[in-house]
Amino acid sequence: MNPVVPRGSLHRHEQSAFSLWSQSRAASDDGQWSLGLRLAQRALRRLDEHEAPDPVLRSRILIALAYNNSELGHTDRARELLDAAATADAVLPAVRVARGLIMVRTGRPDAALADLDAAVAQLRVSSTPEALEDLAGALINRGLLHIVAGRLAQAAADTAAAGAIARELHRGDITFMADHNLGFVRYLAGDLPAALSAMEAAAAAWPRAAQDGVSPLDRARVLAAAGLIEAAGEHVDQALGFFRANRATADLVDAYSVRAELDLLAGDPDAASIAARRAEQTARRRGNTSAALAARTLRLQAVRAKRRLERREQPNRAGSLRRARADAADAARLVADLDAVGLVEEAKTARLLAAEALLDAGEVAQAAALAQEVRRRSGSRLATRLHGRLLDGQVELAMGDRRAGLAHIRRGLDDLSHFQATFGSQDLQAAAAVHGRELARLGLRTAVETGSPAAIFQWLERARGVSSRLRAVRPPADPEFARELGEFRAGYQQARQAVLTGRRDAALEARVRQQRRQVQTLAWSASGGGDVRRPLTLAAVRRRLAADPTDPTVIAYIRGDGVLHALVITARRATFRQLGRFDEIAQQTLRVGADLDLLAMPRIPQPVRDVAGRSLTGGLGRLSGALIGPIEQLIGAGPVLITGLGVLTTVPWGLLPSLAGRPVSVTASVTGAMAGRSLGERRVLTVAGPEVSNAAAEAEQIAALYPDASSLVDDNATGARMLAAIPDGGVLHIAAHGHHEVESPLFSWVQLADGPLYGYDIAPNPSLPDHVVLSSCDVGRSDDDRPGGEPLGLAAALLRSGVSTVIAGVSRIADDVAAPTMLAYHRRLIAGDGPARALATAIADVDGGSVALTCFGVGA
């Protein structure tokens, strides 16, 4: 949130003291409080020692001194200076604005309202440009007061009025503050896409904004609320650096608090405790009791996270009950302090912390009574509401009412899924799952304890991969987004070429990173449709399986407490089995992937290739034994639909001996896969990228199999030509090398004749294929272990954009086997096989089973 340093009007020619005062104000507006203080001190000395008395200018300088002292933590001195400044009637409104702003910044917003109301009323009577400028500043600051007090409608009205005045006066700096603060109001109202859009537009219109710390700090808050921990961390660390350099203690309190929130989301309670303690200490030095108590709430959240982590790792640790009781007492004392200063949201959080500590101490009755009290109190933040749902569920489970406990957890996850549905960005939809991590873990663990396949399946679908049950979202198809993506593409190519030629350019790489952030921000600003598809029940899944004469099977893999389980569903029965240690299976999967990558390299000596081949054969056998062996007798004779998360999505399922030749498809959600469309007759486009041997022949030979198919090879295989030729609802086959981007999957790319073509290029294209084949790269890889089981590989990103089926590699694919395998695959499609069966047959017939291609999405 950006305040405006009070200035007021001065009808005079510029003098030395006046010039120094103006420079002081400019430095303060940029957040450089130490510099602003030094300049104001010089201005006062110059005026008192070398210039004629000027009471109005002297009062202005005193106001500047007061504001800079306040921001640097010297609030008592600031109040003394304001009392001295109030001697000139002409500056009385500015004194009132400054006094009100200082009270807001030191945690006393209610006491500030009278001063700001009086200043606004006094400034409205004049229509001079100077008075209007002061009025705009006063409205900005009163809007800031309303924001702090939670009066969002009044905050929006004052801030919008200030922006209108600033535009009329052509004051870009005040316009930026107003527009940015309106974005902050939208953030508090829960509209995160609109908040990001407003903040980004404000910064673009006033580039100097990027130089201060407030703008990146506020964006960090929004990104943290969306669950984008890494991106938010970059912004808050930028803000911390600026605030430390300028000794901006008021803003440091906020920045340390946001850093603590991010560390909590990242699962690092020790780091969160350090950041929260710094925020608390800084706030106390400033005399801001409210901010100190809010920071203390964060510190107790870190204590709670550490206690819960230790309980999971050492359930019977000595002294754990005593520690939990002490934590409950600390939280209860904090509740009283928070109630006294009127911090409603933080007080509710502290009550939740106290109740959870009582539960951990075995005091179930006391925890239940406190939970009932918390339920009567309103809470506006999503995190607080979800925490309340979690507490209610824990209490009911502790009292032995599993049905009621699961009902509370289900309501919490429903709240979260509706929040995810407000985003029009896949990154944000997936990232927001972090807020439901504990709810999902508790719900699924409780369902597993029942042993009921129906309950386990219901919670599996509800707890992970929620974004696959949301309406398909695609990046914005607008000229600005296309221009920014084009600039990023060109910059990336230049930076890559510089590295390849040994002339790495740090400045160019920094510019490319900024261009990438700009593309992401535009994508993140899109709003979602708000629709959430209800998860299928086990009975509904079995009815659909029974309607399929091929006797299909669904296998859902579940990880819990370090152990992997499988839920096997056929039309006849559903069975839940324990398999083995997850970490052992994960390590074996990684070793198999490494062997496949090695065997795909063209110039490996034969002895090394023989060793890798034997290692691969043994590894696939062990994986098959661990993942399929214990449940093999439960699997039907037909296709298999696998649902898993993290490293399990990179298992080359079609190569496992127990599944050899069998149609296999992989999905994050059974509900999402069964809602997809099966492939019918489609138009086809094939594309060949550079530096892939046989790519052109592969593309042309596949195109020749289909009537009216198109092919782009050699110099014709450009991004623009491919996007223009994509058959809507058809098949897009790309034989090109590519790169998987874990952090943001739509930045994954395939290399075409004119450079990389990103997922961000394909997803918003007016024509979108139903079926995408990526035959020569490993972009089927997915992020390892995201909260909520949200898949974020390029294949998953294309599926979330509306594509039904993606064929992609989960390891490197040798160029000399990709072409014949793909020819066989398309021949089977033409013969009437579904994608999963066609792929299984092609791999078995052509290569004997060493091509790690997987069918993602709809396999029928």
UniProtKB/TrEMBL annotation:
InterPro entries attached to this UniProt entry: CHAT_dom, TPR-like_helical_dom_sf
Span of domain CHAT: 622-842
Gene3D superfamilies: Tetratricopeptide repeat domain
SUPFAM superfamilies for this protein: TPR-like
Taxonomic superkingdom: Bacteria
Protein name, UniProt field: CHAT domain-containing protein
Organism: Nakamurella panacisegetis
